[in-house]
Amino acid sequence: xxxxxxxxxxxxxxxxxxxxxxxxxxxxxxxxxxxxxxxxxxxxxxxxxxxxxxxxxxxxxxxxxxxxxxxxxxxxxxxxxxxxxxxxxxxxxxxxxxxxxxxxxxxxxxxxxxxxxxxxxxxxxxxxxxxxxxxxxxxxxxxxxxxxxxxxxxxxxxxxxxxxxxxxxxxxxxxxxxxxxxxxxxxxxxxxxxxxxxxxxxxxxxxxxxxxxxxxxxxxxxxxxxxxxxxxxxxxxxxxxxxxxxxxxxxxxxxxxxxxxxxxxxxxxxxxxxxxxxxxxxxxxxxxxxxxxxxxxxxxxxxxxxxxxxxxxxxxxxxxxxxxxxxxxxxxxxxxxxxxxxxxxxxxxxxxxxxxxxxxxxxxxxxxxxxxxxxxxxxxxxxxxxxxxxxxxxxxxxxxxxxxxxxxxxxxxxxxxxxxxxxxxx
Length: 426
Ligand code: GUN
Ligand code: FE
What we know:
Blueprint: E1 4-16, E2 19-31, E3 34-39, E4 50-61, E5 63-69, H1 84-96, H2 102-119, E6 121-127, H3 132-145, E7 148-152, E8 154-155, H4 168-182, E9 189-191, E10 194-195, H5 203-215, E11 220-224, H6 228-237, H7 244-250, E12 259-263, H8 269-278, E13 281-284, H9 286-291, H10 299-304, E14 309-311, H11 323-340, H12 350-362, E15 379-382, H13 395-405, E16 411-416, E17 419-420
Parallel strand pairs: 1-4, 5-6, 6-7, 7-9, 8-10, 11-12, 12-13, 13-14
Antiparallel strand pairs: 1-2, 2-3, 4-15, 15-16, 16-17
Helix pairs in contact: 2-3, 4-5, 11-12
Bound molecules: guanine and fe (iii) ion.
The site of fe (iii) ion has 6 residues, from strand 5.
InterPro entries: Amidohydro-rel, Guanine_deaminase, Metal-dep_hydrolase_composite, Metal_Hydrolase, Metallo-dep_hydrolases
Keywords: Hydrolase, Metal-binding, Zinc
Enzyme class: hydrolase
């Protein structure tokens, strides 16, 4: 039997929103990159396969970050006392300009990918910058690392500073070149169409990107309804469109192909209905939404309406690349939302948030984020023996303690699509 092995430990994952499946001291069988089954005793047909025994460690799915800006890693923690639009102008655009310099880009991107590895983020959906060469380099580097990512060369052809803007023609040409060169180049790293947001993209550009999405069967990501001033600006730019989401929709960029929309803090009812109909992913970015005073996204309401939801660190609007930190922040925001809305929208539980950070976001990649049969095996081995555990805990409680009090030092091994991934070297 080739390419078949087992991992053994205390297995915990969420096959559905808020529901744990727990297997104490059990075996996951992996064949090629897929989970074949979970067993308490190793079946005799597998008696000769390699077993990687992780003892009393927890084995959990890898984390999925559905929204982050790679170049903004250099700005982590900076300038977060502003709202979105002034923050973009003062901190973000000047930093992104630097990625015309490949040596600078390589330095920041190496650090970022190592950090993602360290933090157990096995899959990410990423905004690069408008620079074609640095965006390609980021894809090559992800491929080299063994981590999985969708990487978007950003498009922006209006309302942008002179030092960070493209012509419509160049923007479409560069995007198409990347789609041709990279759509089938790697298994785990793919390009994604990335209009920055409506304020910085002309209708002509968005229409062109919508056509490219169809032509190359490419996924799409952008920002939607993050901030009040941003939404007013979109209304002013597109007075004939019903709302922000409809502007993307009219360009073929709202779920005609699989789509992720970051933030979704201030959606109206028509936008919620449209996202549900088109199965557009809403990416919840609680750290960013708190830091930039954007608001509290009505996540349970979106989930109840049938919209797929995942979590995003949104660095550097978010100040932490850690999905553990993002889960805790999402829990706190959801508790405040519950309190302030007079308890009309229930808080999100830890198991619900763990689902969003694994299988919820993983759905954007396919069968990812769970240990059900035929899922791609992305996993983290967690040694929590160094955490302050002073009384016996159930496996569910051990996971809670790791989420709230653990960090990357507890992550001992990472798997992506069936392969153990070692610390990247660039
Ligand atoms: N909207 C447009 N660009 C950005 C960005 O870089 N970060 C965030 N949080 N929102 C945006
Ligand atoms: Fe963002």
